[in-house]
Specification:
Length: 505
């Protein structure tokens, strides 16, 4: 790639961009807002906004543009970039062979900071042209207790929003204010669409919103329940954090973009066909509308997301830094493959049109992309919220069926060591970024006196410590890890043992 003087990314400069940078195949000046999206980050820009961009390019329907909304102060940096770049940004796909493809996305129509002007956000969501409000607010944004699945009514921000409906802090307050305004103005409600990586995300969102409304208006809650749609969806595209190197490489290609987004070529979006207002024809550009998302969700959460955690936790304790390095370690690659086949696949439902073995092989190929450089530190973020969703349901299903859970137990043992030592086995410091970091650390510190202390964190593991079969295997692995037996060696031995058992049976 030859270095050239970079061109500032904005609407005026679109015609001057390098020929190998794809530009919007439509007039960005004429894009209208049909979607309001709360929580604009890397994933949204690589996924939903990309689908909208492709849809507008293919069909010429420019009515589905996206207005972004930031609820938190740290969203201000994203707004600054959108304002400076006329709502444009560059999507860079990194392929396994080292090639890169860059395209400018023109799907965004603006960005509103909710704390600066709450009414402007409510008004925007209330416009009749807005037919979808979508969200990527992470698990924490849904305000539910991980151990019970119930709405946290004592959250001070919840109490604030009830008392101050015109200046809310949480997403629920904004949704309610806009829904009420549309209802008062006889405007059809928008569909509320979660794009977060949560199983049954639409059902969860609906349950939390109704629980919030029921605190102050039972009649409105009933109306929302009967008139507003919350489709479940399954989203998939590996989108690591943008690095300074990514920005420099794009400059060398001729584009000066303050915050491009990088991702793998693979993308998937499966959406429940349940909309109370008109919908974009995302199936025209590769998404799927289905009657039931659950089998697809289960497949992805238990294979991809749990697979990430296997590589992230074991790889971190082994002293590795990225997902592709973990897959390059033959012991871990084999462990992951066998985990998917022997512990996950028996728990899955049939997924129409998908061969699970092909799906596994595709995942391992995706994970091996050396140019994505997805860090294990990112994968291990908020593990206390991830493992109860990604891994532990597989464990419980296997225990009920009397199947082996040894790889899962080994992964949890590595997590316990990670939480205790904050370091790999060779002493490399590991950062713990988890809302329960103190709880995890305190419990793991007691491992030498109570080998089940970590497993007794009920808000994460429930009653798993009382499951003798799991607890016994977990303790055995924990002892081996603490004795500094290399986790890659344990991985290799465990894989061979699994294969031997399978062959004998």
């Amino acid at each position: 790639m030859q270095s050239q003087t970079p061109i500032l990314l904005n609407r005026a400069n679109l015609p001057s961009l390098p020929a190998d940078v794809k530009r919007p195949a439509y007039d960005v000046e004429n894009v209208q807002t049909g979607i309001v999206h709360i929580g604009v980050g890397g994933f949204h820009r690589a996924h939903e906004a990309m689908y909208v961009d492709r849809l507008m390019a293919k069909t010429g329907n420019l009515s589905w543009g996206i207005c972004g909304v930031g609820l938190r102060e740290n969203d201000r940096a994203m707004k600054k970039v959108f304002d400076e770049q006329d709502n444009l940004y560059t999507l860079v796909e990194k392929h396994n062979d080292g090639s890169r493809s860059a395209s400018v996305i023109g799907a965004m129509t603006g960005f509103l900071m909710a704390p600066d002007n709450p009414q402007a956000v409510i008004d925007k969501m209330s416009e009749p042209e807005v037919r979808i409000v979508s969200l990527t607010i992470t698990e924490g944004g849904y305000n539910f207790d991980a151990s019970t699945g119930e709405f946290i009514t004592t959250n001070p921000d919840v109490l604030h929003d009830i008392e101050n409906p015109k200046s809310p802090k949480l997403v629920f307050g904004y949704l309610v204010a806009a829904i009420k305004k549309r209802r008062e103005n006889n405007v059809k409600p928008f569909t509320v669409m979660s794009c977060d990586n949560i199983q049954h995300n639409g059902h969860v969102l609906k349950k939390m919103l109704l629980a919030y409304i029921e605190l102050f208006d039972q009649a409105l809650a009933q109306w929302v329940n009967e008139n507003v749609s919350f489709p479940n969806s399954m989203v998939d595209r590996i989108t690591p954090a943008t690095t300074s190197e990514d920005i420099v490489m794009l400059k060398a290609q001729g584009v000066e973009d303050s915050w491009p987004v990088v991702c793998e070529p693979f993308k998937q979006w499966v959406i429940e066909d349940d909309f109370c207002n008109t919908k974009p024809q995302f199936d025209e550009v590769g998404a799927q509308f289905v009657s039931d998302v659950a089998p697809y969700e289960k497949l992805k959460l238990r294979m991809l997301n749990a697979g990430h955690s296997v590589l992230g936790l074991v790889g971190s304790v082994a002293g590795l830094d990225t997902i592709h390095e973990s897959v390059e370690a033959a012991q871990l690659k084999q462990l992951l493959s066998i985990f998917m086949e022997k512990e996950v696949m028996p728990t899955l439902d049939q997924v129409e049109g998908i061969d699970v073995f092909d799906y596994r092989d595709t995942l391992i190929s995706r994970f091996s992309n050396p140019f994505i450089k997805d860090t294990l530190a990112r994968i291990c973020l908020e593990s206390s919220a991830k493992l109860p969703v990604f891994l532990l349901p597989t464990v419980r299903d296997n225990l009920v069926a009397g199947r082996d859970v040894s790889i899962s137990a080994f992964v949890v043992a590595c997590w316990s060591y990670y939480s205790d030592k904050h370091a790999s086995q060779d002493g490399k410091p590991l950062e713990i970024n988890d809302v329960l970091s103190d709880t995890l650390h305190r419990a793991a510190q007691q491992n030498e006196t109570d080998s089940l202390s970590f497993l007794k964190i009920e808000e994460v593991f429930g009653e798993l410590a009382q499951q003798e079969k799991f607890a016994h295997v977990y303790k055995a692995f924990l002892e081996r890890v603490y004795q500094n037996e290399p986790v890659l060696s344990i991985s290799e031995a465990l894989s061979e043992e699994k294969l031997a058992v399978a062959k004998a049976s």
